[in-house]
Design brief:
The complex is a heterodimer of chains A (113) and B (117).
Chain A: E1 4-5, E2 10-14, E3 19-21, E4 24-25, E5 33-39, E6 46-52, E7 60-61, E8 64-69, E9 74-79, E10 88-96, E11 99-103, E12 107-112
Parallel strand pairs in A: 2-12
Antiparallel strand pairs in A: 1-4, 3-9, 5-6, 5-10, 7-8, 8-9, 10-11, 10-12
Chain B: E1 5-7, E2 10-13, E3 19-24, E4 31-37, E5 44-50, E6 53-56, E7 65-68, E8 75-79, E9 88-95, E10 106-108, E11 112-116
Parallel strand pairs in B: 2-11
Antiparallel strand pairs in B: 1-3, 3-8, 4-5, 4-9, 5-6, 7-8, 9-10, 9-11
Classes of the chains: A mainly beta (113), B mainly beta (117).
Chain lengths: 113, 117
């Protein structure tokens, strides 16, 4: 079974500091995609960043970067220069071929002024 | 539209009532997904459409749940004889491409918050 593990139920970070949100996954698929989504209290799932399993370089999107370690099956999200508006739930997700997107349980990030 | 649109945003149903939740995906998107998200949990897959074909309904929790996408665009998730355990956020998502493409981004709507009392 596809399983996504996010071991941090909650995280605190000081404004302007960097924070890493952990994600590990199970897979036997040779090709897959890894996603991070942000879910504020309004409920919408906002796409942040994508990493393909064959991508040679770690994905980056503005203040978001993905620390992809394929051998360890981990895809940690790094948020640099945290802002108060970054406070939200963050979900790691994976899909491959014909398998729909599978989510982890999420990490609640709180940014402190 | 510019994004995935869902309605109603909020629905309170009495136990035993039938409800219908609507999803308007991004125009031209081939794939459409429904997810159920209980409070404090990650979204759980319900069903998947490629155009009008329902290719995967393995996540539907019971035969009270039914989804359709008759013309390959708008989709409706119907829950019959609602129970309290059906209370959750129902998220719809769409993707530009079809099955077998793990690389294209999946975009979500804001969800329909269902409370069964």
């Amino acid at each position: 079974a596809q399983k996504i593990t996010q071991t941090q139920p909650g995280m605190f970070v000081q404004e302007k500091e960097a924070v890493t949100l952990d994600c590990t996954y199970d897979t036997s698929d040779p090709s897959y995609g890894l996603f991070w989504y942000k879910q504020p209290s309004s409920g919408e799932m906002i796409f942040l960043i994508y990493q393909g399993s064959y991508d040679q370089q770690n994905a980056t999107e503005g203040r978001y970067s993905l620390n992809f370690q394929k051998a360890r099956k981990s895809a940690n999200l790094v948020i640099s220069a945290s802002q108060l508006g970054d406070s939200a739930m963050y979900f790691c997700a994976k899909c491959s071929g014909n398998t729909p997107l599978v989510f982890g349980k999420g990490t609640r990030l709180s940014v402190i002024a | 539209g510019a994004g995935v649109s869902q309605s109603p945003r909020y629905k309170v149903a009495k136990r035993g009532q039938d409800v219908a939740l609507r999803c308007d995906p991004i125009s031209g998107h081939v794939s459409l997904f429904w997810y159920q998200q209980a409070l404090g949990q990650g979204p759980e897959f319900l069903t998947y459409f490629q155009n009008e074909a329902q290719l995967d309904k393995s996540g539907l929790p019971s035969d009270r749940f039914f989804a359709e996408r008759p013309e390959g665009s708008v989709s409706t998730l119907k829950i019959q004889r609602t129970q309290q355990e059906d209370s959750a956020v129902y998220l719809c998502a769409s993707r530009r491409t079809g099955e077998g493409d793990s690389g294209n981004t999946i975009y979500f709507g804001e969800g329909s918050w269902l409370t069964v009392v």
